[in-house]
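Sample intake sheet
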Amino acid sequence: MEPWILGSVYAAVVVALVLGVRASWAFVGGALALVAMGVLSPAEWLASATNPSLLILWLLLVASVAIEQRLAIGRLLPSRPSVLGRMQIFVGTGLISSVLNNTAVVAILIGPLRRWARHKGIAPGAVLLPMAYAATLGGVVTLIGTSTNLVLNGLVRDAGLEGLRSMDFLIPGLAVLGAGSLYLAWVGGRMTLGSAEEDSATTQLPYTVETKLAKDAPEVGKSVEQAGFRQLMGLYLVELQRGTQLIAPVAPNEVLQAGDRLFFAGELSAVDELLRARTGLVLPQREMTERAHEAPLVEAMVPPGSRLVGSAVRASQFRQRLDAAIVGVRRQGERMRGRIGDIELQAGDLLVLVAGPRFKERAAETRLLYVLSETAAPEGSTLTQRAFAWGGLGALGMLAATGVLAPLAALALWLGVLGAIKWLRWTDVRRGLDPELIVTLSSALALSAALQQSGLLERGLSQVVPGLASSPEWMWIAVLLLATTVLTNFVTNVASVVLAFPLAVTAVQGGYLDATPAMLALAFGASAAFLTPAGYATNLMVMGPGGYSARDYWRLGGGLTAIYLAVVFMYLTWIL
């Protein structure tokens, strides 16, 4: 095959990722192109899914679902919001994230931490973003702390190099977690991040609520001001839709007609009051919302990777999937306009829902949403169950660390223990395995392997390497760290590892750098996603609940990135 064709596929994947195309589409598209060209066989593509490192990741995702239901999050939250109290939150979050999926950890903590902040009289924005950053820091403490580390380890083994170990990550990981948590607690606590006041997260960009004026409403024929709709229970009338005509702003003397759709903006508490009021206004999906005055009102978030992302509310089968109706929507950085049914949902959107009796069960099963307004109590367990679960984890972990058992075998046995004590159910297995993630990572590994086998990347890098060939090791480490740090803030962290891996392999195989510091530079650089909301899924998850702007990420993340890279660079060049 002509090298330029293979290079074009690689370049197309890079361009797609930079332009914001979903990673699954970019990598799957690249792998399909190689299959169509005969470079990659379907068997080789499917074999990538059974890479030992990816199998460990699949099992860890299942274990995370089982364990997160037993976490007593309240123990993380201190009695005082002092520097030491915040350190307790951030270090605790990082340590949990070192063994559990960090996206799940952040999802569990958002609701309780936001309520804790309000109870202590501080803005939720002061702690939510630092908590998300702490979860990212915790992911680099162990080999299994983040999917990026496991994907990199799979690439390393496929390249014929010795795999990474958890001990390789432990010392630098704990160092960045400690230094980063201190910075987040001390410096971050003195910054004004997100909302400055307890309930102002929605002040500038409140929830948008769609209502309809009933035919028999007493307000029909009255002006907006006479009907009292100009300001209704703290909700402000922002626009009115009459047939195909959109009226905005709405004049106080505008005469109301039956069937008019009125769009209000306001706080969550005001939405709650409106739903419980008896006015001539009705809500969409009336068959569910007509009992809104007595049904529970739930605040939820659309997480990154949810199958709802990119779907219009009307076409998403929201009610059928979740037994709930959307009555309010808020998106950070944008005022929502038009009918709620026509809104295309995006990751990070906050929703106000009228929940049906099966909502909690379906939300837990489908993972389409993360519920923020309430948190289920940890499932009960006996002393015997806890002893088998945590004792088994410790014993099998020691056997894996000493080489008696392979990590994959140890993890599989631990899942067997969790199943035996009824901490793990088949529903947890279904919830834990993400088909999109499996296909994305398998495609990324297959694409990388095909490129390495072709020798194309080595020829392309031959133009870059001579400029670094005579450089000392610290220069190579600096280049790898900075390259992956830049990439990870604009594409996904897994993509940054896959794209930068050929340079690291060239450095190792050319004798310019030892394998361990080269691969650790990639791993730590790929997790330095602190500068943009889209840099990491957990960054985006807290944007709405914390009321953050993109500028907040630069302000807090800039200093954290500098400290993080300095600690890692010193360890890799002076200590390792």
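Comment: Residues 201-371 form a domain with the Alpha-Beta Plaits fold (CATH 3.30.70.1450). DSSP finds 26 helices and ten strands in the chain.
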